[in-house]
Amino acid sequence: MTSTPHPDSPSPHRFPVVTVGAGPAGLTIGNILRAASVDCLVLEAETREFIEQRPRAGVLEEWAVRGLQERGLADHLLARAQLHTQCEFRVEGQRHRFSYTDLTGHHHFVYPQPLLVTDLVREYADVRGGAIRFGVRDVQLHGLDTDRPAVSYLDPETGRRTLVHCDFVAGCDGARGVTRTVLPQQARIARHDYGIGWLALLAQAPPSSDCVVFGIHPNGFAGHMARSPEVTRYYLECPPGDDPENWPEDRIWAELQERLGAADRPPLTEGRLIEKRVLDMHNYVVEPMVYGRLFLAGDAAHLTAPIAAKGMNLALHDAFLLGDGLIAYLTKGDTGGLDGYSAACLGRVWDYQEFSQWLSEVYHGASSGDAYRAGTTQARLRRLFESPAAAAAFAEQYLGKSSAS
């Protein structure tokens, strides 16, 4: 790996770990380190107010919440999160309830990512005394292929470049972050494009169902996910790269009512749209997730389209493994966790990738314009509704129970 020479800096600092990115992965790693009295510096390009309000995912799997709870990071979550035990498919105007808790004894938590980030940053910075710098610019990584890596950044208050020496860098800054730009040529990035878009919406309206609803419709997929008693997340399948301005509110609500309609249910409760953006559905995986002293986590290492609501869960899985591995090395000299980090993460990553691809065919086959895909979609749905074995297998994957935690 080619390293940038260290820049001159009038105020060098040192931390055992520098984490780039203050999302769920980076903040969880920081909290794990601080709980073991290991110093860590978290660098974040945005303000604290921004990351505490940024709309993102909201579905947490039970094992992920258990992992947060074991690390003292779930008190607010457990007090405020909604428990979901069922999901619902709406096909040809008919409702099909799917009770995954009855099949497995497990459930989902619904807790919007901004609330989790707020909890994690408060615990890290305000309670555990962790160092964090918001609004940093031009982050650069140095010496990652040596045993003396460093990170530098422009301080937003002084405008001067600060150099921080460290033992390890945790890259948790997402798909567009700096850590993705320093991967060596031999890095393998596997990518899958679904060829569809989703119009992602947040409505200032109460949920119209007590569970997640998936609309399978010839016009395209639609999804309904509660975020709070006052706010609901909706998705509408649309062409990739579509302009959100092609979707005025009256068109959006007409399509949502059509695609999510059911003969025995009242119309959706409508409200003001407070977010409207188009997501082009794609997945990618970086292999391995370790390059020298750089360890990738979360979306910096892999992206799973929101088709199966797995992204935040994978980020937490990475964070648990990486945080524990760093503690073992820095406090005991035990290299096992760090040596096995990439392989341990990628097992779950690829399992979730495969499930996302399978579920995409269920969601989008009816609207593909391909009679064969539409027919296989119907076959999959019939099997899901009629076969206890198929239902149990789906429930395990939907809950993340089929992967080792």
Largest sheet, described in full? 8 strands, mixed
Extended strand count: 21
User: Strand order of the main beta sheet, please?
Assistant: 7-6-15-16-17-14-18-21
Amino-to-carboxy terminus distance: 32 Å
Q: Which stretches are poorly predicted, pLDDT < 50 over at least 5 residues? A: 1-11
Protein name: 4-hydroxybenzoate 3-monooxygenase
Keywords: FAD, Flavoprotein
Pfam families: FAD_binding_3 (PF01494)
What does this structure look like?
With 405 residues, the protein is an alpha/beta fold. The chain is 35% helix and 27% strand. It contains twelve helices and 21 strands. It has helices at 24-35, 48-51, 62-70, 75-80, 100-104, 113-127, 249-259, 311-332, 336-339, 341-364, 371-386, 388-399, and strands at 13-14, 17-20, 40-44, 59-61, 82-84, 87-91, 94-98, 108-110, 131-134, 137-142, 150-154, 161-165, 168-171, 188-204, 212-216, 222-226, 232-238, 272-287, 290-291, 294-296, 302-303. The strands form four sheets. An eight-stranded mixed β-sheet has the order 7-6-15-16-17-14-18-21. Strands 9-3-2-13-20-19 form a six-stranded mixed β-sheet, with helices on one face. The chain has a four-stranded mixed β-sheet with strand order 1-12-11-10, with no helix packed on it. Strand 10 (137-142) and strand 11 (150-154) form a beta hairpin. Helix 1 packs parallel to helix 8 (311-332) and helix 8 (311-332) runs antiparallel to helix 10 (341-364). The longest helix is centred in the last third of the chain and has 24 residues, at 341-364. It is globular, with a radius of gyration of 22 Å. The model is unreliable at 1-11 (pLDDT under 50). It comes from Streptomyces longisporus. Residues 15-355 form the FAD-binding domain.
